[in-house]
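Project outcomes to date are best conveyed with an example. Our students and postdoctoral researchers have been running inverse folding experiments weekly, and each run begins with a structure described purely in tokens. The record below, which covers 418 residues, was selected by the lab manager from last quarter's runs and is presented without edits.
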């Protein structure tokens, strides 16, 4: 661990933060569990991070309602109320908030201990969703397991599980990280198995995010550049092979390259073309909240995958720029917390926090790229903002664990123990 700290050039940072937070004898240091082992009130957490998450959730709720308010006009949703999706969205946020409050009480050592078992449970979930009468099929994709109050998506759990497992894996393989077959190859097999299960759903978008999380943690964990380059080439080759052997994926790429071609505008490029129209109508300051035309059954999935297009049409360039800056700040903050943990020789906690930064930043980047026509269409939601129960739940759980990392960092820098 010390070698990794030195390699990342964090020795000076460690000295600075420890000097900055020397133990003040006038302020009692709290242990994170009372004499009976019960959790005590948490203090000194990253409040700007929490408020940024709350702001994104609040804006997301407003835009989900705006994007879905007219959906009952569609014969498919004629029995729904105008507030149906907003109510379900608030229910998901409420459940996620309670789960986050519970998760933030759990020490990081517990997550590190059970990381491999969480990964195994995730694999079982990805298998279960493919079983008829267990997984629910929507628009030709089998990605959800009905749980009554919400439809659970195992691929969302897979993102959290991969961040936990990859961080734990790198800690265990730290001594042999320069050996391809002992360090990198087993992780490549794990990612490959998850990828095969996700592509069977199919959910290529989730596979892209999970592969990015795994590769990012390997790189940050100290895998040398040559092996990282080889892994990148293999993954790119695998994606090219999947696209070239799948006619419908190939058509989607062609539609992305020329969305205004008559052959694609009413077909594979229908979503993209209407998304671009929405951004064009928004101009600088937008048409005004609630004034989107594209959400009136022109733009499919306006409240999920293409929520940013509705933001662009109603709030304009200014609204979209604020969302982009917010996600950039959020990702940077998560990386900072991770780097701080590594400076304190807490490698698992640090790599995990940075893995969540890759998840939030990477998925937001892909979603925004798809909405703006910079990337081929993928079924990925905008983290913390798009409608989706299990996505909101796992987003807040992951961020709650990062808040716990920050709390333990601060405890150690004040002379206590994590």
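After processing, the design step wrote out the following sequence:
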């Amino acid at each position: 661990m010390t070698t990794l700290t030195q390699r990342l050039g964090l020795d000076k940072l460690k000295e600075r933060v420890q000097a900055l937070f020397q133990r003040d004898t006038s302020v009692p240091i709290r242990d994170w569990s009372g004499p009976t082992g019960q959790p005590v009130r948490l203090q000194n957490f990253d409040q700007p991070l929490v408020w940024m998450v709350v702001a994104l959730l609040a804006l997301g709720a407003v835009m989900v309602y705006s994007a879905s308010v007219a959906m009952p006009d569609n014969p498919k949703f004629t029995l729904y109320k105008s507030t149906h999706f907003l109510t379900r969205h608030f229910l998901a946020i409420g459940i996620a908030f309670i789960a986050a409050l519970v998760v933030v009480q759990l020490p990081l050592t517990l997550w590190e201990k059970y990381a491999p078992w969480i990964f195994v449970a995730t694999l079982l979930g990805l298998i279960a969703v493919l079983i008829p009468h267990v997984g629910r099929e929507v628009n030709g994709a089998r990605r959800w397991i009905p749980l009554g109050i919400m439809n659970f998506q195992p691929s969302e759990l897979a993102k959290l599980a991969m961040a936990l497992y990859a961080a734990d894996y790198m800690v265990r393989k730290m001594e042999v990280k320069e050996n391809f077959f002992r360090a990198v190859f087993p992780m490549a097999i794990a990612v490959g198995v998850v990828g095969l299960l996700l592509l069977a759903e199919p959910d290529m978008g989730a596979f892209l995010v999970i592969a990015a999380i795994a590769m990012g943690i390997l790189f940050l964990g100290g895998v040398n550049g040559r092996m990282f380059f080889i892994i990148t080439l293999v993954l790119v080759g695998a994606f090219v092979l999947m696209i070239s052997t799948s006619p419908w994926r190939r058509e989607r790429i062609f539609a992305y390259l020329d969305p205004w071609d008559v052959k694609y505008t009413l077909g594979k490029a229908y979503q993209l073309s209407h998304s671009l129209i929405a951004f064009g109508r928004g101009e600088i300051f937008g048409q005004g909240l609630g004034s989107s035309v594209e959400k009136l059954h022109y733009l499919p999935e306006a409240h999920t995958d293409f929520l940013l297009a509705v933001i662009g049409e109603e709030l304009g360039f200014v609204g979209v720029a604020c969302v982009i800056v917010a996600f950039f700040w959020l990702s940077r903050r998560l990386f900072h917390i991770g780097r701080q943990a590594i400076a304190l020789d807490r490698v698992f906690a640090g790599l995990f926090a940075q893995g969540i930064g890759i998840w939030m930043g990477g998925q937001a980047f892909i979603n925004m790229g798809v909405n703006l026509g910079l990337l081929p269409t993928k079924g990925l939601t905008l983290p913390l903002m798009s409608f989706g129960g299990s996505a909101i739940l796992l987003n807040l759980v992951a961020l709650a664990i990062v808040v716990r990392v920050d709390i333990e960092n601060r405890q150690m820098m004040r002379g206590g123990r994590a």
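Residues 249 and 403 are 39 Å apart (CA to CA). Residues 1-8, 20-41 have pLDDT under 50 and may be disordered. The training component of this project remains on track.
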